[in-house]
Specification:
30% helix, single chain, two-stranded antiparallel sheet, alpha+beta, 222 residues
């Protein structure tokens, strides 16, 4: 009575394997250590020693010196030749005196009132100021919309800027001198309050304005 093959060797897939020729167990391969398993698994030191051992029989091979380990640094290249030619030499610029600080001039360009406070102050001065503000604003908006070119307007053009005393003409206290799409020049004679109103209206409409002297008693407002 034979012993079942799958009980004799559980690893055999067929139970008739003992009847097949050449199915005898093969001899097991001898185990190899990790050090002898191949160059791919060797350590770096072992590989370095093996490579260095190739040069032991060469009498011309010498160990590296300290100079060989030094990192070479490239010399900096100059942009201009030395010595610098006369055409490239720079000359010292003479010092310039700093401008003197004028507190009055620095304070003149500051806004001391907000837009809300400016409207409140103008409204407080009565109907005469209100009429002048409306006329100045109408003339300013007309210039912003049309942008005509008029230089030294004719004396026949007249328009009232405020009741009784102020008029917008070439002969009155407020007269137009020049009008271009980029600039509007008015001449206001001996009336600082009228210039103040014009500056307030320009600021309200985000228009840059300034005044300058154009004679002894005449100031032009740009």
């Amino acid at each position: 009575m034979s012993f079942p093959a799958f009980l004799r060797n559980p690893g055999i897939a067929s139970r008739y394997a003992h009847l097949i020729p050449g199915s005898v167990e093969r001899a097991a391969k001898p185990r190899t250590s990790k050090a002898d398993s191949g160059h791919g698994r060797e350590g770096k030191r072992r590989i370095r020693r093996r490579e260095n051992a190739k040069f032991t029989s060469n009498p011309h091979v010498v160990p590296p010196s300290a100079k060989d380990y030094a990192i070479a640094q490239s010399a900096p290249k100059r942009t201009f030749p030395q010595p610098i030619p006369r055409s490239l030499r720079s000359t010292d610029v003479p010092e310039k005196d700093a401008p003197s600080f004028d507190p009055a001039s620095a304070k003149a360009g500051q806004f001391t009132l907000t837009l809300k406070g400016m409207r409140k102050e103008l409204r407080r001065n009565g109907p005469m100021t209100e009429g002048l503000v409306l006329d100045v604003e109408a003339a300013l908006l007309d210039w912003l919309e049309k942008g005509d070119v008029v230089i030294f307007a004719a004396s026949g053009v007249t328009r009232t800027m405020a009741p009784d005393t102020l008029s917008f003409s070439t002969d009155g206290p407020i007269r137009e001198v020049e009008r271009t799409p980029a600039r509007l020049v008015w001449a206001i004679e001996e009336n600082a309050y009228a210039r103040y109103i014009v500056h307030c209206v320009c600021r309200w409409h985000s228009v840059v304005s300034y005044s300058e002297s154009a004679g002894q008693s005449n100031r032009q407002l740009h």
